[in-house]
Amino acid sequence: MQAARTGSSQAFAAIAVAATLAACSPRPVQGQSQVVDGLKFDYGLVAEPARGAPPASHPDPSMHGGAPAQPHTYHVVLSVADAKTGQKVDASEVAVGLSGPGHPGTNIAPMEAMSVNGQASYGHYVVLPEPGPYRLEFRVTPSGKHQPVKARFTLERPA
Q1: 75 and 48 in contact (C-beta within 8 Å)?
Q2: How many angstroms separate the CA atoms of 115 and 118, rounded?
Q3: What is the chain's percent helix, strand, coil content, to nearest 5?
Q4: Where is average pLDDT lowest: 38-52, 55-69, 80-94, 123-137?
Q5: In terms of Cα–Cα distance, which of 157, 159, 158, 155 is closest to 43?
Q6: DSSP annotation of 105
Q7: Quick check: 143 and 92 in contact, CB under 8 A?
Q8: Which of 91, 78, 84, 88 minimizes the C-alpha distance to 146?
Q9: Going by C-beta distance under 8 Å and a sequence separation of 6 or more, which residues neighbour residue 51?
Q10: Which helix (H) or strand (E) holds 119?
């Protein structure tokens, strides 16, 4: 009888540890804005033309190495600001991870600094090949810091 209690106690302890770790990990947020560790993350998703080329009126058609020539290509734009002051955050590294249909695991790619309406932002192209839920994970390492701040979002591919 003692062996059965020990086994169930160990199983309970393992479940309690897993639940604690899950509670510490930020859950993906629906919507396009959230605050994590004092940083406000706002992102946007812009559909690119089917051929993958930005319109001729685009200020820099070669941005981020050019858009992939695949259907369902989107330009992800991220703005990061101090949640209290609204001042843009200077970051030494910014990356985006993507997982979901057609993306097993999380593919992490650097985002490039860019200006949107005169505001400092970051951008990268992503391909969302199939309908369904996707997860975006932004990793921002503010200048002078060593660890990135991570914000996770869920989204449905636009039609």
Answers
A1: yes
A2: 5
A3: 15, 50, 35
A4: 55-69
A5: 155
A6: E
A7: yes
A8: 91
A9: 69
A10: strand 119-127
β-strands 29-30, 149-156 pairing: parallel
Q: Are 107 and 127 in contact (CB under 8 A)?
A: no
**Is residue 99 a contact partner of residue 123, using CB atoms and an 8 Å limit?**
no
Q: For residue 67, which amino acid is it?
A: A
Q: Is the dihedral of CA 86, 88, 90, 93 positive or negative?
A: positive
Q: What is the mean pLDDT of residues 129-147?
A: 93
The residues, ordered by sequence, that sit 6+ positions from 50 with a Cβ below 8 Å of its Cβ are: 71
Residues 6+ apart with CB under 8 A from 7: none
- pLDDT band of 68, cuts 50, 70, 90: low
pLDDT for position 26: 53
Amino acid at 112: E
- What tokens were used for 117? 């309406």
Bridge partners of 79?
42
Residue 19 above 70 pLDDT? no
pTM for this entry: 0.73
Which two structure tokens, joined as six digits, stand for 64?
């981020």
Rounded CA-CA distance 125/104 in Å is 17
